[in-house]
Each structure stands twice: as C-alpha cells, then as structure tokens.
C-alpha cells in the first residue's frame, strides 16, 4: 500500500463537548500520513481552545476560525481548495472513526482501483453509548443510484483527488454533502467497503428521526438547484419515484 497524504476535512460550530473524542479518533489512526483541515464556523464556545490544546506541536493540524458564520458549503469548499492530499476524507466533530479506518479504506481502493468509496458505520447516542445499529448500503453506486438515495454517510466517504480532481458545491441550505456526492458520482462510481469503520452520533433520543427518509423539500433543492434537473424530474426524484418514467 502507498503512503500518499490524506486530507481530512472537518467542520465545527459550537461543538466543544465532542471535539476531544473526535480528534482522539483521528490521532489514533494506524495510517499516520494525514493533514487535518479544521474549520470552526465562528463558535461562541471553547471549541478552538480545546482544538489548540489537542493540536500541541503537531504540524499535521491546520486550524481555521471564521470571523462570521459562513455555512458548511463555503467552509468545505475553502478546505477542499487548500487540501494537498491525494486522498480526501471527511469527519465532523461529534462522529468518530475506528483506528484502522484510513488504512483499510485506502487499501480497499488501491486494491480495486476505485476512486470513490464509503464504509458501513454504527450509531451512538450523545453519551457515546452504542445504539446497536450498523448501517450499510449498496455495494456499487452509480450516479443514477445516487440520485435515488444518499447512500454514503459523511464520515465514511473517501475519494481520490488525482482521479476526481477538484469538486465544489453551491451554498445550499441542507444536504450539501449529498450534492457533493452527486458531483463526484457523475465522474466515477462509488463502492462500499462492507466494514464498520465509523460511528455517527445521533443525540436526539429518537432513532426513528435518523432512519426516516430525507424530507422531500431538501432533496428537491439538491436535484433542482445543484444538479440542474428539471422541476418535474426533481420532484419525482425527491419523492422516490422512478426517474425513467418521468419527463419534464
């Protein structure tokens, strides 16, 4: 396996209670050639103070804080512009990785020649207690399949910047990570590494809220605004209808 640099994109806003657990999961990675591009979006708590303590003298940390709240899309686009790595990975404060997440995913992609992949993941509550749920997905996700469903969870995704090149999304209000996956899947297919290598925090106390389908209005916005699909096609896709039977 090669030892190419991984650029980890991490966003935060008032995330002080969880920042240490998330960063510890990065520091514990068995694959150590990474840089962390951390953007704090004008937090009012002590997130940045904790980040600086965790960073210490580690040169792999690149920490930024905005003067005013810019939103996830703008901050992520800025980080993607600054990323130097061949491999681009994503993790937000609150979620965590298994120690071998980067190592296993890079080996999987290099072995098969994949440029875009995601993994299975578990769920935990706000006290970091395992919910006993593991989420998977399709083994092979084409652009058409990605239109039907946002298969990858944010903290499970990795792509090869050499093959995918630069990708950016407009500043839509929600599901902007989904818009990013759609852009990438227009270029290359996405593949599942069927191993549980990450954990998402679901602090709301009702697991059903997480498991429900995305609300139609947000999915419509991704299809209509970001993917520039027609109104009828966008509504059909957002509603879960078969795109092949719909025309504008």
List SSEs in N-to-C order.
EHEHEHEEHEEEHEHHEHHH
Low-confidence stretches: 205-218, 220-226, 241-248
Rg: 18 Å
Strand runs, count: 10
Q: State the end-to-end distance.
A: 47 Å
**Number of H/I helices:** 10
What's the mean pLDDT score? 84
Instruction: Provide the β-strand percentage band.
Output: 15-25%
Shape: globular
Q: Main sheet, how many strands, which sense, barrel?
A: 10 strands, mixed
Q: Which structural class do the helices and strands define? A: alpha/beta
Helical percent range?
Answer: 25-40%
Protein traits:
248 residues; ten-stranded mixed beta sheet; alpha/beta; disordered C terminus
Strand and helix layout:
Blueprint: E1 6-12, H1 16-27, E2 34-40, H2 47-55, E3 61-65, H3 72-82, E4 87-90, E5 96-97, H4 101-112, E6 116-124, E7 130-135, E8 140-141, H5 143-148, E9 158-160, H6 161-164, H7 176-185, E10 190-201, H8 207-211, H9 216-226, H10 231-238
Parallel strand pairs: 1-2, 1-4, 2-3, 6-10
Antiparallel strand pairs: 4-9, 5-10, 6-7, 6-9, 8-10
Helix pairs in contact: 1-2, 9-10
Quick overview:
With 248 residues, this protein is an alpha/beta fold. The protein is 35% helix and 23% strand.
Description:
With 248 residues, the protein is α/β, with parallel strands linked by helices. Helices cover 35% and strands 23% of the residues. It is built from ten helices and ten strands. Strands 1, 2, 3, 4, 5, 6, 7, 8, 9 and 10 form a ten-stranded mixed sheet that branches. The N and C termini lie far apart (47 Å).
């Amino acid at each position: 396996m090669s030892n190419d640099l991984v650029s980890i994109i991490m966003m935060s806003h008032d995330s002080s209670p969880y920042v240490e657990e998330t960063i510890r999961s990065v520091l514990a990675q068995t694959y150590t050639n990474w840089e962390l591009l951390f953007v704090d979006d004008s937090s009012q708590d002590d997130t940045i103070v904790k980040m600086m303590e965790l960073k210490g003298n580690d040169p792999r940390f690149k920490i930024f804080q905005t003067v005013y709240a810019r939103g996830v899309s703008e901050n992520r686009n800025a980080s993607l512009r600054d990323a130097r790595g061949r491999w681009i990975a994503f993790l937000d404060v609150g979620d965590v990785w298994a120690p071998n997440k980067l190592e296993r995913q890079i080996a999987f992609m290099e072995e098969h020649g994949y440029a875009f992949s995601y993994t299975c993941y578990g769920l935990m509550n706000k006290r970091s207690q395992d919910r006993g749920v593991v989420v998977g997905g399709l083994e092979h996700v084409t652009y058409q399949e990605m239109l039907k469903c946002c298969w990858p969870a944010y903290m499970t995704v990795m792509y090869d910047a050499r093959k995918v090149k630069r990708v950016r999304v407009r500043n839509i209000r929600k599901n902007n990570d989904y818009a990013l996956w759609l852009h990438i899947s227009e270029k290359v297919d996405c593949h599942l590494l069927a191993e549980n290598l990450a954990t998402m925090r679901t602090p709301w106390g009702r697991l059903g809220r997480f498991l429900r389908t995305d609300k139609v209005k947000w999915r419509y916005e991704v299809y209509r605004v970001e993917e520039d699909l027609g109104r009828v096609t966008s509504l059909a896709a957002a509603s879960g209808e078969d795109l092949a039977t719909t025309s504008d």
